[in-house]
Amino acid sequence: TSVIGGVEVDGKVSEQPGAVYRPVAKVRQKGALAFLAEQALRTPSWLEPQDILSRIGPLAGNASLAARQGAVVAQLLDARRLDRLALGERMLDAANAYPAAEYLGDVRRALLAGAVPLDGHRRQLHRVYLERLELLLAPPPAPAASPFGGAGFGGPLPPLLAAPNVRRSDIAALARAELRAVRQAAGGNAATASGVARAHWLDLADRVDEILEKQKGR
């Protein structure tokens, strides 16, 4: 996850030419997301062998597989990561950047891919995904500055690590566009599904409507 939205820093003295800050190469960032999609977002059932769980019981709380998968989604949709993607596109190296809009679309396709089995873990991951998109629309207030500073020695966090002002950025607009895309995809999937799968896709579409309707009053 640290590769996505990552920034390489090449410290220089004033006489040295060349850029100090540059985004991690786009192809490497997309490769990192593809790896996570296959190894973390697709249920790694080998981590829950039934012959062992039948003896020790299912894992619960933060130790559960679903919680760990959800933590990956939370990191992928962290506002600071999205802000660094936008910064790379806007200021550092537009030709080599991974645009935030393209990245969010890739995350959505990785999570909603029809070829991936729609098991219980996957359905829960979809709900976590919507929760994180909603959080980008209504972020919590920025925490008060620590009297000791965020980076030690009484100083603030480095700009690349500080929380962005989401409401003044493009992040909320992009998150809202992703919610609409999820609603459209969920409606299409529901049309060809049955049983719990159909109920799940219809529920996702309804949840998107609720989130967008709630935002109208803000």
Give a brief rundown of this model:
56% of the residues lie in helices and 3% in strands. By secondary structure, the chain is an all-alpha fold.
Write the layout of secondary structure elements.
Layout: E1 7-9, E2 21-23, H1 26-41, H2 50-56, H3 65-76, H4 79-92, H5 100-112, H6 120-137, H7 171-191, H8 195-216
Antiparallel strand pairs: 1-2
Helix pairs in contact: 1-5, 3-6, 5-7, 6-7, 6-8, 7-8
Descriptive report:
The chain has 218 residues and is mainly α. The protein contains eight helices and two strands. The chain has helices at residues 26-41, 50-56, 65-76, 79-92, 100-112, 120-137, 171-191, 195-216, and strands at 7-9, 21-23. Strands 1-2 form a two-stranded antiparallel ribbon. Helix 1 (26-41) packs parallel to helix 5 (100-112), helix 3 (65-76) runs parallel beside helix 6 and helix 6 packs parallel to helix 8. The longest helix has 22 residues, at 195-216. The two termini are 32 Å apart.
